[in-house]
Design a protein that fits this description.
The structure holds two protein chains of two kinds. By secondary structure, chain A is mostly beta strands. Chain A contains no helices and ten strands. The chains are: A mainly beta, B mainly beta.
């Protein structure tokens, strides 16, 4: 069966460091993968989309990579700030009409 | 505000009661989705509309759940005979039709349901 795996343990880092979050998926080859940010009690907010033919995508301090051989996407936040603290969800295209989300990784940036 | 709007934001009900949630998507978006999210989990897909047609329903959507989008604009999600296991955040999202379909989802703030 298709699975999406994100580290369920919270990631704690110091302000100014680079945060790296991992998304692994199995039994499918997504045409694209999306990343969302979700703050407590709020709906998810779209951040970035990367397609299968793109190795890397950047947006300001965010960088996403997509390794279709490893079936993995990495999400990086450089020069992290306490305001970056949130849960980050990955959503690879699993060939369905609706997006399927991972369980998310909570990031805590300490000042 | 032209984002996705959900109402009510919070609902507390007793087991066995019926509840209804409303979602107003972004006006030019043809696609509307309902998701359910419990603590520590990602959003789980419930159902999908393109315009007024309900094109897909998850097996999570038991016969106590019904969703409508009568005029292809707003949508309602009704849960009948609520159970404690229905306690969750119910999220609505919309997206425009794009080819290819890689459009991001625009989520509302959710309707949090607590069943006592």
């Amino acid at each position: 069966s298709q699975k999406i795996e994100q580290n369920s343990e919270a990631l704690n880092i110091q302000e100014g460091k680079t945060a790296t979050l991992t998304c692994n998926y199995t039994n499918y080859s997504p045409a694209y993968l999306q990343w969302y940010r979700q703050d407590p009690g709020r709906g998810p907010v779209f951040l970035l989309l990367i397609r299968e033919n793109e190795k890397e995508k950047r947006k300001e301090r965010l960088k996403v990579t997509f390794d279709t051989t490893l079936k993995q996407s990495l999400f990086h936040i450089t020069a992290s700030q306490p305001a970056d603290s949130a849960t980050y969800l990955c959503a690879p295209d699993m060939g369905r009409r609706a997006l399927t989300f991972g369980s998310g990784t909570r990031l805590q940036v300490q000042p | 505000d032209t984002g996705v709007s959900q109402d009510p934001r919070h609902k507390i009900t007793k087991r066995g009661q019926n509840v209804t949630f409303r979602c107003d998507p972004i006006s030019e978006h043809n696609r509307l989705y309902w998701y359910r999210q419990t603590l520590g989990q990602g959003p789980e897909f419930l159902t999908y509309f393109q315009n007024e047609a309900q094109l897909e329903k998850s097996r999570l959507l038991s016969d106590r759940f019904s969703a409508e989008r009568p005029k292809g604009s707003f949508s309602t999600l009704e849960i009948q005979r609520t159970e404690q296991g229905d306690s969750a955040m119910y999220l609505c999202a919309s997206s425009p039709v794009r080819v290819p379909n890689t459009g991001e989802l625009f989520f509302g703030e959710g309707s949090r349901l607590t069943v006592l």
